[in-house]
Amino acid sequence: MSDRDTILSVENLSVHFRLGGGVFSRASIVRAVENVSFALQRGETLSIVGESGSGKSTLARAVLRLVAITKGSVILNGENLAQLSNNEVRKRRQNMQMVFQDPIASLSPRRTVEQIIAEPLMVHQPELSGEERSAKVRDTMDAIGLLPDMRNRYPHEFSGGQAQRIGIARALIVEPTLLVADEPVSALDVSIQAQVLNLLSDIKRQRSLSLLFISHDLSVVQHVSDRLLVLYLGHVMEVGAAKDIYANPQHPYTKALLSAVPTIDFSANKPKRTRLTGELPSPTVEHVGCPFASRCPMAQAICNEQKPQLNTVEGRDVACHFPG
Amino acid sequence: MSTSQTPVLSIKDLFIEFETPDGAVKAVNGINLDLFKGEVLGIVGESGSGKSQSWMATLGLLAENATTSGEVTFDGENLLTLPPKALNPIRGNRIAMVFQDPMTSLNPYLTIETQMVEALRIHNKRMSKPDARKRCVEMLDRVAIPAADKRLKQFPHELSGGMRQRVMIALALLNDPEVLIADEPTTALDVTIQAEILDILLDLQRERGMAVVFITHDLGVVAEICSRVCVMYAGRLAEIGPVQDVFTDARHPYTLSLLKATPRAAQSQAAQSDDALYAIPGAPPNMRMPPPGCPFEPRCACADAHCREQVPALEPLQGSETRLKACFREGSSAALLEALVHER
């Protein structure tokens, strides 16, 4: 990015949940996000990747303060959201909007498209007249590739791809600076997925929007990202320019994750697969050492004793005792 | 596949219709396909292309409002017309199936042991319980489930998604089937777990020489594990052939569009991520009123008036014994690509 204009800066963010705990049992603590830091520039797309249970959705929700922040700060446009009251956060949501995974389920079935898309305006710009609101809805629908004639229809009349466009229009109508998209194309077929991905990259460019993109699909992520953050059990494993990480991953976890992606590649020099054995350990355990040590093919004694800090390796940050 | 080989299973003129309050849905519209011993056949297509339904039909697992016509021949018998009594010794035994969601296909009230032993003894009446149990442990070991003895005593909810899918595979392979139909078996799993399960599945397939039908929407998975691929659109076959040939030199505009719409994450192709993806315009047809001509015509960059009026038949490519396509347009993959780029 030539424009070093930081929109969002997350510092030492932790999110913990209490699990269980009743009269006869002690509560355990799920450490969903642990000490995560990153920054997002204007017009940049940062993708968060990791397996199920890695904390990627929780991290995104914490950024919007949709879940309570246990520790650390989320600084959006120079203001620490972690310290604001709920009421004040609600006002800031005009600047940060979200697109959800299931396009149909995230739209109210009893409301028309116009009502759905106009709703954020009712909350954030109540001073607008009905006519001004309608005009804005029409403009946004047009920009997103929805025919304005469709505004009186209901969500069930739309296909998955169109419903996702409605979800995107609803997020964009208040002109946010930050858009958080949580698995926005996972529920769509390939041909429709391409339409939505192209749309997202167009609007990002036109509006110099910053995008926080969450996905488990590493092919999709490679296509949309400027930067990449690899999460494992709530910990950052590797963060840096997406091109560099895809071309030459430094963390053993990133390597294993990328090599597991099935590819259409019939060449003889196709990279060999690193096999990971075992599964994600329980997130209720507090790790003294590296959280990935139990599945890591490179692990040594020190990995179980000391948590690796993020260090700059080959132009990106890697949390590993033995990177490369 | 050479033409001299006899297929293990053969589908002829298969049609499937679902009666609904809003009219009949023509889900599958005339499929002809042979499955050969020892091959891994990939079936790709989008939601609603009929890729699952055509194989559910072979095992008599369609919903009640379905009517079928045509033939599915297995060991000299037409599976479509067999009564359940005659079908039961075949399904789950000689032809087995693995579904996408292991949580809904395992019974939550029964232990893994009960379910596996039942699957064995229902087809082998004389097998003793201890023998059956021994065989189950072997099978769980084979799909890399640690502490198989202990796992047998557990209920499905005590296992992770990856473990449950391994149990499903073990369950399907208990009776040494000749044909395994796997319907999106790894779609709900993380890539790391998917990679492991695909390896296990391929090992077992090679070891037993069984035929595997792998239904998926993921072209990458097909490229990695299948020997042949069959591309479906709107209940018809668009293109069939050896995977590498079809993926590197697609001859049906739909196959090519699908390949161009798929983001690639090969490390060697890091540079290509800047291009926009090819987005196939429009949406798949409404199968209550499929278009009169080629079903892909409304979205196709290469279509002309002829395509609108007549359905192209699935025919061999000139000079090829292994490849077929259903498209009037002649010419190489490169010529089709030009039409796509031009349209954009």
Question: Would you kindly provide a brief summary of this structure?
Answer:
The complex is a heterodimer of chains A (324) and B (344). In chain A, 30% of the residues lie in helices and 23% in strands.
Keywords:
heterodimer; A: about 325 residues; alpha/beta; 8-stranded mixed β-sheet; 10 helices; B: about 350 residues; about 35% helix
Describe what you observe in this structure.
The complex is a heterodimer of chains A (324) and B (344). By secondary structure, chain A is an alpha/beta fold. In chain A, 30% of the residues lie in helices and 23% in strands. Chain A has helices at residues 56-63, 86-92, 113-124, 130-143, 160-172, 190-207, 218-224, 242-247, 252-259, 301-305; strands at 6-19, 28-41, 45-49, 71-76, 79-80, 96-99, 178-182, 210-214, 227-232, 235-241, 310-313, 316-319. In chain A, the strands form two sheets. An eight-stranded mixed beta sheet of chain A has the order 6-7-8-3-9-10-12-11, with helices on both faces. In chain A, strands 2-1-4-5 form a four-stranded antiparallel beta sheet. In chain A, helix 3 crosses helix 4 (130-143), helix 3 packs parallel to helix 5 (160-172) and helix 5 (160-172) runs parallel beside helix 6. Among the domains of chain B are: 109-169, no CATH class; 248-341, no CATH class. Chain B is built from 13 helices and twelve strands. Chain B has an eight-stranded mixed beta sheet. In chain B, a hairpin with a 2-residue loop joins strand 9 (228-233) and strand 10. Chain B is globular, with a radius of gyration of 21 Å. Chains A and B meet through helix 6, helix 7, helix 8 and helix 9 of A and helix 7, helix 8, helix 9, helix 10 and helix 11 of B.
